[in-house]
Amino acid sequence: MALITCSECKREISDQATVCPGCGVHIEKNINKRAQATLEKVILKILPVAIFIIVIIFLESVSKPIFRIFGL
Ligand SMILES: [Zn+2]
Fold this sequence. Notes:
1 helix, about 60% helix, binds zinc ion, about 70 residues, mainly alpha
């Protein structure tokens, strides 16, 4: 167990604590972890959609000259 300094009141608190016992502020390290987990969830949701859109745009750009050949 290590001690970290609270970003708000500068007290030394346990790195296991989620809130500072001195001022009640949420520990930044844990907020960052939570933000990172949320970001990863968002990326995992967006990534397949982004890949799908890229594939559609790619197929669109590839298929246009083919349609032109067939006079469409
Ligand atoms: Zn504090």
